[in-house]
Specification:
Length: 236
């Protein structure tokens, strides 16, 4: 019954005009990375409110069922509920169960917003506090684009804890990946790392700026002084 309630609540908020915009934005045409996704046109804040309403009473099996749909908002709301479940529990075994469940569902966590709103809050948190960094290394070595993105974006939690070494290690593992979404994610995490410790970013750029894809470099430089940006961009 809870699944029907959630689906009914989401369907009631559907906005067909916004859905068309989102389908273009998230590249759902044939051959694009979001091919096959459909949208209802619901904002993330609206989905977050629904997730808060239902997360305590929904099981992992029911979340898995909701994740199986091609409707993007069903999957995002599922992941938001999973984040709330993970953050709410103090039981480390329950946290581990949620992490293992998350890792079993990566084929459905298959767009950048689905990854970015959930991975560092679940996988990143767990890997940092339980010394399970190997999970991130395994994901970074995957052939799957989304698992690679989970690996790098999960380091956001490490960055917030001032643990920065793993960030550059993850970037270097997929620095020359063919997809622009990885270039953006790598540059984003480098930028966030630099906001915590600019000297670490500068040391990395001194060695690797010339090798970084232009998109990664541009993202990494966003918060630096204009003269510093110009210096590194001219290396390209």
């Amino acid at each position: 019954m809870i699944l029907n309630e959630i689906k009914f609540t989401l369907q009631a908020l559907a906005n067909p005009e916004k859905a068309k915009i989102l389908m273009r934005f998230f590249k759902t045409d044939k051959g694009e990375y979001g091919e096959g996704d459909t949208f209802l046109g619901i904002t993330v804040p609206e989905q977050r409110l629904i997730a808060k309403q239902y997360f305590q009473n929904i099981s992992l099996k029911e979340i898995e069922d909701l994740l199986s749909y091609n409707i993007h908002e069903y999957r995002l709301t599922s992941l938001l509920m999973l984040v709330f479940k993970y953050e709410k529990t103090k039981d480390i075994q329950e946290k581990k169960e949620i992490v293992l469940f998350y890792l079993s569902q990566t084929s459905r966590i298959n767009n950048w917003d689905l990854v970015d709103t959930s991975c560092y809050k679940i996988v990143g948190h767990y890997c940092f506090h339980e010394n399970e960094e190997q999970i991130l290394y395994n994901l970074a070595s995957s052939d799957d684009l989304w698992e690679k993105r989970i690996a790098i974006v999960s380091t956001m939690y490490f960055i917030r804890q001032q643990s920065l070494e793993i960030v550059t290690e993850m970037v270097l593992r997929n620095m020359n990946h063919s997809h622009d979404l990885m270039h953006k994610a790598n540059g984003w995490m480098l930028r966030e790392m630099g906001k915590k410790d600019e000297s670490v970013l500068i040391d990395f750029l001194d060695e690797y700026a010339i090798k970084l894809p232009r998109t990664s470099l541009r993202y990494a430089l966003e918060k630096l002084e204009p003269s510093v940006k110009d210096y590194y961009m001219k290396l390209k």
